[in-house]
Every structure is written in structure tokens, then in C-alpha cells.
Backbone:
């Protein structure tokens, strides 16, 4: 049976069980590598700037998505931002109830035209508002690995 044929009777479907020895390595790319290294080494966010379009990309990109210019103007952006939108999770990925709801937000970072999706912490769902000011809470330096999880969460500014 070719891949283009359709199975019209489910009892004709055959499944093979077993393991496939596949190894893969994914990278964050040139811009992502620099972005995560800065988080790991200095607990700071970097973006790339397109002067022609007046845009600062976070996460950084190597090319402007508007004018396609190569971007090599790296700028530090704030670890403080604004909750642009959020959602409250009550179930885990296996649809089991969470002991405490998880709050995920898109945080637009000051000094950029982008932002990050991450958890909100030190706040209950009924206290979260679109527009609230939040800051990144980074793990201690010796625990950071160059991952988005080097940010523990965002919390209300001044918490
Ligand atoms: Zn541009």
C-alpha cells in the first residue's frame, strides 16, 4: 500500500511496534545561542535592532522580518515588562488537575517590540491583570544552564 492510498477498513491497518535508533541535535541558532548565553552568564536579555524599521526584536532574530535586512545591532533590553495577555492552567499535560493553577503570560519587554511567554509567580490568578508590570526572576548564576528555564518566572515589579 502506498502512502497515498486510504484505508477504508480499519482492520487493514497494520502497526509495527519497536524502537527506532534516531539521535538528533537541535540548536537555538546563532541569535538564540547568543540570547541564551547572555541569560546564563549575565541574567540579561538581548535583542537585535533594525534602525530602518525602528524595531527591536526579542527574542533576537538575524534578519528583520519587515525589510529582510541582516541584523547585527545587538542591544540589551529590560528584564521588566508588561503582561500583554495571560491564561490560567488548571490541568497538566496529562489533563490531571494541578495542585496550584499555573499562570502563563506573554510579557512584552520594555525597550523592545517583542517579549517572552513564561510563567507568572508570587501572584494568584485573581490578582493578574493585563497591563500589570512584571520583572524576570532569574535562577542563581550557578544554576543557570542557558535555557528559558533560567528564568524562574516573572513577578509583579516590587514584589
Ligand atoms: Zn527592518
Residues:
Amino acid at each position: 500500500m502506498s502512502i497515498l492510498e486510504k484505508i477504508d477498513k480499519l482492520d487493514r491497518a497494520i502497526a509495527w511496534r519497536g524502537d527506532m535508533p534516531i539521535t538528533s541535535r537541535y540548536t537555538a541558532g546563532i541569535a538564540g545561542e547568543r540570547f541564551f548565553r547572555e541569560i546564563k552568564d549575565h541574567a540579561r536579555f538581548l535583542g537585535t535592532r533594525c534602525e530602518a524599521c525602528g524595531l527591536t526584536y526579542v527574542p533576537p532574530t538575524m534578519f528583520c522580518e519587515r525589510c529582510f535586512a541582516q541584523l547585527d545591532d545587538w542591544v540589551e533590553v529590560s528584564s521588566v515588562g508588561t503582561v500583554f495577555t495571560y491564561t490560567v492552567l488548571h490541568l497538566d499535560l496529562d489533563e490531571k488537575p494541578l495542585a496550584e493553577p499555573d499562570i502563563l503570560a506573554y510579557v512584552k519587554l520594555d525597550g523592545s517590540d517583542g517579549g517572552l511567554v513564561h510563567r507568572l509567580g508570587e501572584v494568584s490568578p485573581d490578582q493578574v491583570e493585563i497591563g500589570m508590570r512584571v520583572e524576570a526572576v532569574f535562577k542563581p548564576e550557578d544554576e543557570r544552564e542557558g535555557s528559558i528555564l533560567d528564568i524562574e518566572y516573572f513577578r509583579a515589579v516590587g514584589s
Summary: The radius of gyration is 21 Å. The mean pLDDT is 94.
